[in-house]
């Protein structure tokens, strides 16, 4: 069998649940890596082995993102530095992209024609308003402000055509017929916003071994001040906070075969972990691929993720999502009657390719900060606990990126994102009960952990998980269930000093 044919057969077998990661090891090492020769596959397989000892750091562990790693001081700008291996000309493009990422869009018509096109319904006026300091969003405040938070909306499929489109991965979800795919809490002058969200919490005590206790806050959401009448009676909602921007280009550079090899949908190896990829449509290439971005891995590329954010969050059209009215629906006639920002001299969309290319380059090259205190005895002890508890089964520590990655600076880099980029059942406690693509209402993509220890430094808070309900790392762990239940229970049963070491390790990432 030719190597290419073998790689394809392995991928298909993985998708069918016939091979687990353990079974794959019995085949040619990393056979799916068509970007590597036999000697390179053997070397990479060796590099990716889990640590045999926790007495000292692993080789190159300090450089979380390979040659792209930022060695700048870990201050509030820690997530805003460019990849360390960019050329002078690329640094220029990065800075131009940064300016466009921060650009405030305005409603049409305006004298600043290159900035026309905001909304008409929107959540933010710029990318930076959601991703403050390129960091992590947080849950709404008591005053209802939700600048870095939004609510996704959908309804169950209503027709055979919709069910077929979802089954063939041509559609992720059916939007609410009035309010669309997400709730926009702002609007241009003369137009009503769609509504606003309020959140309340119920405290749930959790007893831990060693006499310690913790408390989890369970959120309850209310959508009020609806501007366009009632929602569909079967509407499903899912709260989301903005995700950190660092390392996105490197996640795109991970070989798709490595993502598929993480899957074990039938739990053939019996470890209780049965993750699977969210297969989604690459709208530019018109093919079905593994999703990588978003809380449920619903987008496959930075370009597509950015285009949908431009449309849904800001109401700006791009080549990929070309409607100048953003998420306005057919029933929102007042919204569709508003002027848009398309300028013929600039092209057929409000953000032409010259703009989106620079924004995408910026997003692809926000550097991951270097690790800290990697040789501290408590950090090393916490790393051992991380592996012994089973956390690394989903939060896969490291990869070697593809030699065929689109950007040369991202190729063949040893990176440490701590994610498998696939979906896992996280239990009823974290369920949003809203299917999207392959993902059920209980499934979430394993979130990358790189940079998580700098959340408070960059974003000014320590709120974690998809809706910011966890107020710290320990609470985030204690919300894990489903496939992660066994690992969580091991951590609950640890003595306090071991739990403290685990948290210290996570803070070093």
Quaternary state reads single chain
Terminal Cα span: 42 Å
| Percentage of β-strand residues | 5-15%
Number of strands: 12
Helix content: 25-40%
Mean pLDDT reading? 93
Q: What class, by secondary structure content?
A: alpha+beta
- Unreliable parts: 1-27
Order of secondary-structure elements: HHHHEHEHEEEEHHEEHHHHEEEEHHHH
The largest sheet is: 2 strands, antiparallel
Shape verdict: globular
- Widest sheet, order of strands: 1-3
Number of helices, counting only DSSP H or I runs of 4 residues or more: 16
Radius of gyration: 23 Å
Task: Explain what you see.
α12 (377-388) crosses α16. The protein has 16 helices and twelve strands. The strands form six sheets. Strands 1-3 form a two-stranded antiparallel ribbon. Residues 1-27 have low confidence and may be disordered. Helices cover 27% and strands 11% of the residues. The longest helix has 15 residues, at 88-102. The chain has a domain at 51-83 and 254-278 and 366-507. The chain is of the alpha+beta class. A hairpin with a 5-residue loop joins β4 (196-207) and β5 (213-224).
Compact summary:
The chain has 509 residues and is α+β, with helices and mostly antiparallel strands. The protein has helices spanning 3-15, 21-25, 38-47, 88-102, 127-130, 160-167, 248-253, 256-261, 302-314, 333-336, 353-364, 377-388, 455-459, 473-478, 485-492, 496-507, and strands at 121-122, 149-154, 186-187, 196-207, 213-224, 236-241, 279-282, 287-290, 399-400, 414-415, 423-425, 443-445. It has a domain at 51-83 and 254-278 and 366-507.
Write the layout of secondary structure elements.
Elements lengths: L2 H13 L5 H5 L12 H10 L40 H15 L18 E2 L4 H4 L18 E6 L5 H8 L18 E2 L8 E12 L5 E12 L11 E6 L6 H6 L2 H6 L17 E4 L4 E4 L11 H13 L18 H4 L16 H12 L12 H12 L10 E2 L13 E2 L7 E3 L17 E3 L9 H5 L13 H6 L6 H8 L3 H12 L2
Helix pairs in contact: 4-11, 9-11, 12-16
């Amino acid at each position: 069998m030719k190597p290419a044919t073998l790689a394809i057969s392995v991928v298909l077998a993985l998708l069918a649940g016939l091979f687990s990661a353990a079974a794959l090891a019995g085949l040619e090492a990393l056979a799916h890596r068509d970007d590597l020769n036999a000697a390179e596959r053997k070397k990479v397989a060796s590099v990716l082995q889990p640590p045999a000892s926790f007495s000292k750091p692993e080789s190159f562990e300090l450089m979380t993102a390979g040659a792209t790693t930022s060695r700048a001081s870990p201050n509030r700008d820690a997530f805003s530095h460019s990849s360390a291996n960019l050329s002078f000309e690329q640094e220029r493009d990065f800075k131009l992209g940064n300016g466009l990422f921060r650009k405030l869009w305005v409603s049409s018509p305006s004298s600043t024609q290159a900035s026309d096109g905001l909304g008409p319904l929107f959540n933010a006026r710029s990318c930076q308003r959601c991703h403050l300091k390129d960091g992590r969003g947080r849950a709404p405040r008591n005053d209802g402000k939700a600048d870095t938070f939004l609510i996704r909306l959908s309804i169950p499929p209503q027709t055979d055509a919709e069910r077929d489109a979802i089954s063939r991965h041509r559609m992720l979800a059916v939007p609410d017929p009035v309010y669309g795919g997400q709730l926009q809490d702002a609007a241009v002058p003369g137009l009503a916003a769609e509504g606003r969200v309020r959140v309340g919490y119920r405290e749930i005590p959790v007893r831990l071994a060693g006499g310690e206790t913790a408390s989890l806050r369970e959120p309850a959401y209310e959508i009020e001040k609806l501007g366009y009448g009632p929602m569909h009676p079967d509407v499903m909602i899912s709260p989301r906070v903005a995700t950190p921007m660092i390392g996105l280009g490197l996640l795109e550079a991970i070989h798709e075969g490595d993502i598929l090899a993480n899957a074990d949908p039938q739990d053939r190896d019996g470890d209780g972990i049965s993750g699977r990829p969210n297969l989604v449509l690459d709208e530019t290439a018109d093919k079905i691929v593994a999703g990588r971005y978003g809380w449920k891995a619903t987008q496959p590329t930075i370009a597509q993720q950015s285009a949908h954010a431009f449309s849904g969050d800001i109401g700006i059209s791009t080549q990929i999502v070309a409607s100048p009215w953003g998420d306005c629906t057919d029933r929102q006639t007042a919204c569709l009657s508003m002027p848009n920002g398309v300028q013929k001299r600039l092209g057929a969309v409000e953000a032409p390719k010259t703009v989106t290319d620079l924004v995408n380059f910026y997003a692809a090259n926000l550097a991951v900060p270097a690790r800290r205190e990697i040789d501290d005895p408590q950090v090393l002890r916490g790393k051992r606990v991380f592996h012994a508890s089973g956390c690394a089964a989903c939060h896969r520590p490291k990869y070697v990126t593809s030699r065929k990655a689109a950007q040369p600076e991202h190729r063949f880099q040893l990176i440490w994102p701590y994610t498998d980029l696939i979906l896992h059942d996280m239990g009823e406690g974290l369920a949003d009960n809203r299917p999207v693509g392959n993902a059920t209402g209980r499934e979430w993509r394993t979130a990358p952990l790189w940079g998580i220890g700098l959340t408070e430094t960059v974003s000014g808070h320590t709120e974690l998980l998809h809706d910011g309900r966890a107020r710290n790392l320990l609470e985030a762990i204690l919300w894990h269930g489903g496939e992660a239940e066994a690992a969580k229970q091991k951590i609950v049963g640890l003595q306090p000093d071991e739990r403290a070491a685990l948290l210290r390790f996570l803070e070093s990432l």
